[in-house]
Structures are given as structure tokens and as C-alpha cells.
């Protein structure tokens, strides 16, 4: 389902010529509102405690702000990738993010790495390498089949562009505007 969603977002983004940040600015308020409404309800359902009962210390607020900043960075990077990569490439990047999260969790927070986690990361990295290799082979085969065109412009279009540049350089700048008669009579200043 996520692959179809990412692919359709990418195609809609190209169809309507919407940039990554414009797409993010349209969807972020909806996501934020849904999290503000559903977040406390789901949190209460999972933990049995209200979020307002938590005693916020300065350290907790600092880590909440850090987590929010990292989440914003993650969302921006995902929206930058949606329009530029295929759905499969987007999934490969998602698996790479998961590998990085597990590795950084182990390095920074001394979280436990089980055999299952390690094997999953190894398989994911091997899959990424194979996918990259297959994409490179496909690019090389495509480059052999299609001849490289030196220029997409015709010789006539290049000649017209050169003539336009030469006439733009050769023509002097326009003279400054003359003062209007009413400005002189009223003693007004002219704009320069």
C-alpha cells in the first residue's frame, strides 16, 4: 500500500509540477492536526496515563525538541526523495534508514542487538548492494542502446540565441527619462 501511495504521490507531483516543499506545506498541517487529536488518545490507550499527568523537566523538554527537530528533518528528506526516486528506490532508502536507526541505537544508547536484528540488517544491506548493482547495469545497457545527442537544440535555434545575445550586448542602455513639464512647474524632483 505504501509503495502505491509513494508512486502516486510522485506521479501527481510531476503531473501538477508541485515541488517537494510545496507538497510538504500542504500535507504537514493535516498530519500535525491528526497527531494532536489522535496522539493523546492512542497514548492513553497504550500506557493508561494522560500526557498532561507527566512532569515535564528541562531535560525532557530538551529531548522532546531534539526529537521534533529530527522528525522534521526526516520528513523533509522523505519529501525530497518522493519526487526524485521510484517507489522501489524509496523503499531501499527506507530500509537504509532503519539500518541506521538500529545501528545508532546500539552505538549511542546501548540497545540490544539480537541475532535477528543483525541478520535483518545484513540482508537489507546486501539487498541494497544488489539493487544498486542492477540499476547501474541497467543504466549502462540503456546508454549503449540510445545514442547520446550532443545538443537538444537545433543549429538554427543556437544561431538565433547567439544573434539575440549579440544584439543585447551591442545595444546601449536606454537614456534616463526626461522630467515631465508639471514636475518642472511645481518644482518637483525627478526620479533618477
TrEMBL record:
Residues 180-192 have a biased composition (Basic and acidic residues). The keyword Transmembrane applies. It is a multi-pass membrane protein. Residues 168-192 are annotated as: Disordered. It is found in: Membrane. GO terms for cellular component: membrane. The keyword Transmembrane helix applies. The chain crosses the membrane at residues 56-76, 88-109, 115-134. Keywords: Membrane, Transmembrane, Transmembrane helix. InterPro entries: EmrE-like (IPR037185), TPT_transporter (IPR050186). This is Uncharacterized protein. It comes from Buddleja alternifolia.
Amino acid at each position: 500500500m505504501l509503495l502505491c501511495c509513494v508512486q502516486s504521490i510522485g506521479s501527481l507531483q510531476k503531473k501538477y509540477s508541485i515541488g517537494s516543499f510545496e507538497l510538504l506545506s500542504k500535507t504537514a498541517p493535516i498530519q500535525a492536526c491528526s497527531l494532536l487529536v489522535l496522539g493523546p488518545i492512542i497514548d492513553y490507550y497504550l500506557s493508561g496515563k494522560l500526557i498532561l499527568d507527566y512532569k515535564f523537566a528541562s531535560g525532557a523538554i530538551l529531548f522532546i525538541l531534539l526529537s521534533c527537530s529530527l522528525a522534521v528533518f526526516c520528513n523533509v528528506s522523505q519529501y525530497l526523495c518522493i519526487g526524485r526516486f521510484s517507489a522501489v528506490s524509496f523503499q531501499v532508502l527506507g530500509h537504509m534508514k532503519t539500518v541506521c536507526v538500529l545501528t545508532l541505537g546500539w552505538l549511542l544508547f546501548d540497545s540490544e542487538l539480537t541475532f535477528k536484528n543483525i541478520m535483518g540488517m545484513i540482508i537489507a544491506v546486501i539487498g541494497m548492494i544488489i539493487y544498486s548493482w542492477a540499476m547501474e547495469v541497467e543504466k549502462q545497457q540503456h546508454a549503449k542502446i540510445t545514442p547520446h545527442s550532443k545538443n537538444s537544440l537545433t543549429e538554427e535555434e543556437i544561431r538565433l540565441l547567439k544573434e539575440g545575445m549579440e544584439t543585447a550586448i551591442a545595444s546601449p542602455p536606454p537614456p534616463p527619462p526626461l522630467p515631465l513639464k508639471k514636475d518642472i512647474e511645481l518644482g518637483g524632483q525627478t526620479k533618477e
